[in-house]
């Protein structure tokens, strides 16, 4: 299952921070993972004892980080054993033990600090982004045996936290001290089947964005209701949807949802909408892609017009401006199904002119329009961890709240139509340029006789460390270019971002250079591979 891709990882039960509520439902414990300083709530059934499975796990996991985690467990167990034995010693022996244990503690603290630095830059407090591989562990408090999980699940891809762990706040140092008093160590195995995130997903954040020229944009996580925040300047800042109690369940809207376009992104989105209990009607240009979702409980729409006319809110996620226009304006298109009160949400990444034109024709028929392009890739779409950038009809944005919680971890409301398109193109411009730079560095390392793996290890220890960097380098090192984000689409986004710069006479020389490299990769037949296949444009 998609949550079963992490290898088992050692950890121990600790006391959670006072302000962190325990998830409802199945019994779980708050766990500190050895060697990473990450923390998470883990369900009891995901745990196995440490000692009986230790050798088996060491054979499976050869990674340096895993070995460091095991070393940290052993050090912890040695300390615990030492404390137990010390109780029978006389006072002079105890004094001697304390001195030596203080020395060990200093060493251990240095080791812990070094290990914590491994995850710095990969962990982002309060968000699931940039998390280093979060593998974890837990067990009943007080049972002395360490834990672990069964081996039938496939190893999880690196760098992606399980859904329940997104946006987990890392405790303060006082909590970490308290953590050291925990008695249980073990391995945590993630579940093989993803479980629905429950309502009022505490990890889903909506943000309030200032629409002024103020240098500091006002970001504010909102709980429950949406409000409008008046800033000192008197201008209105707009924020996003609602966030709810820890691991509560999402209450799906009773509105009928339509979805057009079942590509890499659309497929994961529809799957998560269905899992959270939404009523969804699907349509795709090639109808066979709908079959899987019909089996999962979706209804089949014969044309975009039919989907729009039978649903309250219809989402679309297609490839580019031409596809987005054809979908709305073409034969049996969206526009033919629009009547007063019908809602249309376009999640495609397109230019501001295209989305403004579509908004105008929808609204002219009495419809309501929201643009909501998403930042992410196929894996994040499958995991319900997309970042949603929305603009347009504010009321419609609020009506989409349960849908956005099902498909994403965060949503931003950016004001008038066109703003989300511009912001999305800028985000993807940065990402595409960075990807080309990574490929350039790896190939330069190779031709100058340097180890590409060592280059990745060095980058992962520095301030550039991120899930994106690690995964894309791994793709290149393994020669695995299975698409997570199509190369042809990142090139399209670079092209549109450069055009955006043109429209305001703003120079975009980095994006322009990167765009040329992607065009070469396309000429080398890499269009339908992952964006990391831009690497192949650099191979002589």
TrEMBL record:
SUPFAM superfamilies: 6-phosphogluconate dehydrogenase C-terminal domain-like, NAD(P)-binding Rossmann-fold domains, Tudor/PWWP/MBT. It comes from the Eukaryota. GO terms for cellular component: chromatin. Its main location: nucleus. Gene3D superfamilies: 2.30.30.140, N-(1-d-carboxylethyl)-l-norvaline Dehydrogenase, domain 2 (1.10.1040.10), NAD(P)-binding Rossmann-like Domain (3.40.50.720). Keywords: Chromosome. InterPro entries: 6-PGluconate_DH-like_C_sf, 6PGD_dom2, 6PGDH_NADP-bd, GLYR1_PWWP, HIBADH-like_NADP-bd, HIBADH-related_NP60_sf, NAD(P)-bd_dom_sf, PWWP_dom. Pfam families: NAD_binding_11 (PF14833), NAD_binding_2 (PF03446), PWWP (PF00855). Residues 1-53 form the PWWP domain. Residues 1-23, 79-175 are annotated as: Disordered. Residues 79-132, 149-169 have a biased composition (Basic and acidic residues). Belongs to the HIBADH-related family. NP60 subfamily. This is Cytokine-like nuclear factor N-PAC. It comes from Ceyx cyanopectus.
